[in-house]
Structure formats: structure tokens, C-alpha cells
Amino acid sequence: MADKRDRRVAVVGATGVAGQQFIAALDRHPWFRVTALAASERSAGRSYREALTDAKTGARRWYCDEDPSPEMLSMPVVDARDLDLDACDIVFTAVESDAARDLEPRFAKRRPVFSTASAFRYEEDVPIAVPGVNLDHLDIVAAQQKKRGWKGFVVPLPNCTTMGLVVTLKPLLDAFGLRRVVMTSMQGLSGAGRSPGVAALDVVDNVIPYIVGEEEKVAKETGKILGGVAGDRFAPHPVLVAATCTRANVREGHTEAVQVELEREATLDQVRECFLRFGSEFCARGLPSAPQNLIVLHDDPFRPQPRLDREAGGGMSTSVGRLRLDAAGLRYMLVSHNTKMGAAKGAVLVAEHLVDAGRI
Ligand SMILES: NC(=O)c1ccc[n+]([C@@H]2O[C@H](COP(=O)([O-])OP(=O)(O)OC[C@H]3O[C@@H](n4cnc5c(N)ncnc54)[C@H](OP(=O)(O)O)[C@@H]3O)[C@@H](O)[C@H]2O)c1
Prior knowledge:
Bound molecules: NADP nicotinamide-adenine-dinucleotide phosphate
CATH topology of the largest domain: Dihydrodipicolinate Reductase, domain 2
Strand content: 15-25%
Strand order of the largest sheet: 3-2-1-4-5-6
Number of strands: 14
Radius of gyration: 20 Å
Mean pLDDT: 97
Low-confidence stretches: none
Structural class: alpha/beta
Order of helices and strands: EHEHHEEHEHEHEHHEEEEHHEHHEEH
Shape: globular
CATH superfamily of the largest domain: Dihydrodipicolinate Reductase, domain 2
Number of helices: 13
Number of domains: 2
């Protein structure tokens, strides 16, 4: 008998770095069946296999650890502007912001859209969804639908650098309050996407000390996600967030050094305890893409490391270590998977939450 949570889903931007992670997250999903793939006109009219393959060299440009299934590779790719909304119940999008601004409203007229792009993140009727952190913000989509006359909606995820940060800040906020956060990131290369991406000659043997627009995004999104909803408006949390975002010679996974000034005094044991407990109710629901723990804590002072820890909880747990309290405040390092929790699989988990709750 069919599961009442069975849904047909489309992936838009399926050929890109985040789009490929959607394919990996959905390929054998117990509820969601991929019925349509879309990308730019460059890929349209080809099979997914052909669209991924460099015509000159024959190299397949596939960036996930998990291979796509033969069924997925033989699916046709359509131009995103021609996506048949009758063929899907849910749309996942992974395109650059300019394309998203044009495409997502077209889809949202009729279908729920879960997006990795920043196009709508900062609009007053649009939540930025983080699994286990602020899913109550999703209530605001009713106002979005009413205001825009949409049957569906747009729900973006945060920037991949914001993701690990807010997962660790939320339990601290709830237990001790937050005054100030200083964060320095060392971000994986896949976070820059496939095109234009990061040139190997620039990044090998190097750290790039600036990522355009990233620091502002982290500050703005953190306040919105950690804030509340008053009626049909967001009330951002006033915490001061000072971020320095850098690109490191790491394939996948964002590492962040975090320093937090708490509002109320805390001991290390209390902090440890609140990290360990965080999200247990959400994870216990057993949603297909949810990890066992939102936060994995390390005592080994040489962890977390992106190579060892990005796949924690299937790429959905934030790994935390180097926890210490000193005159500078509470300090720790974290590693979060930027294309899984920080993009595609995180979006799939938000959709699972709404489907499981009978809301879509
Ligand atoms: N990479 C990450 O870690 C990450 C994390 C969080 C959020 N994001 C966000 O996810 C989005 C995609 O990023 P990415 O890293 O996956 O980029 P990417 O590797 O450059 O892939 C871009 C995708 O968008 C498609 N596309 C480009 N222009 C289009 C158009 N006009 N209409 C329809 N499709 C179009 C491309 O299709 P073709 O192959 O046909 O060109 C490709 O599938 C961005 O908004 C990014 O900020 C990325």
C-alpha cells in the first residue's frame, strides 16, 4: 500500500554541486520520488548522464561520494522554465540567486519550493528554515501565500556557513542568552559551486581571506533564524555577529572557529550538557534524513576536522570540539557539511518535516 507521505519531487539545478547532493539525498528516498530534473538551457534536452558529461573529454562532472543510480542518469533534463508542475508535488531548487528570483515564484504559484538560494531569504514573509532550530518559523508561509496569492510557497535554507553556526548557537541562546558572536570560517571549495567555482591555481597551497557577501549573509541570517515571529513578522535577535569568512584548501565541509559572549554565566559542563541534549526530540521523530544527534561533541583536541567529521550523522550533524571557557568567553570549533546539512539534504529534511506533519 502506498505510504501517505509519498511525494513526487523535482530537482531544479540538478547538474550543479548542490543539485547533485539533492540527487544523492533523494535517489533511494523512502517517501520522495524524483519525477523531473531541470537545469539551464545548456543542459536541457539531454539525459542527466549527458548533461553531467563534458562533451570534449567525456569526463563526468560528479562531485558527490555516492554515485547516481542508472535510473537517475537516464532521466531527461528540461529547461527550468519549462518544468511541468503537474509532474511533481514538491520542487527543490539549487540555482544561483538571479535565476532563483525568476524561477522560484513561477513554481511557488502552485507548489511548495525548498531552496538553497539566497534570492528570497531576506524578505519579511519568508522564513529561513533550519531543521531542529526554528521550524516554528514555517508558520509564516500562510502570510506569504496570502500576500503573494500563491498556492505553494518559497522556503529557503540559510547560507551553508550560517548553518553550523546557528545549530550551535540555538542551544546556547535558549540556556544562557547570547550577547556577541565572533566567528572565523575556513570554508570548503564545494561551497563556491561548480561555475565559476574556485580556480585550483588560486587555492592550492593557499587560504583565500575573503568571500564576497558571505560575512554579511551570516550576520543577517543568524539574527533572523534565532529571533522570533511576532504575528506575521520576524523579530530578529539582536545578537552582534562579526564573521570573517575564508576559503581553505578543503574539498567539502566548513570549519568555523567561534567565540561567544553569553548573557548569563555558564560552566563548561553545562555547555557540554546543553549541546548534547540539543535537538533530541526532533531527531527522535526518525525523519529519513535526520541524524541521531544534531550536535556531536569531541573531547579529542584535534577534532573536529573536515576530512574526518563532515560525514557525521550522514552529513547532517554539526561536529563541535575544542570547547573552552576563558577570559575571551566561550570558544569552540565546529565542522558542518556545506552541501548536505548546509544545502540539499537539509532542504529535504525540512520538506520531510512538513510532509510528516501533514502540512504539504
Ligand atoms: N555549493 C554549496 O555548498 C551551496 C550551499 C548552500 C547553498 N548553495 C546555493 O545553491 C545554489 C546553487 O549552488 P551550486 O554551488 O550548486 O552552483 P553550481 O554548481 O554552479 O550549479 C548551478 C546550477 O544551476 C543551473 N543553472 C544556472 N543558470 C540557470 C538558469 N538560468 N536556469 C536554470 N538553471 C540554471 C546550472 O545548470 P547547468 O548545468 O545547465 O548550467 C546548475 O545546475 C546557489 O544559489 C548557492 O548559493 C550552495
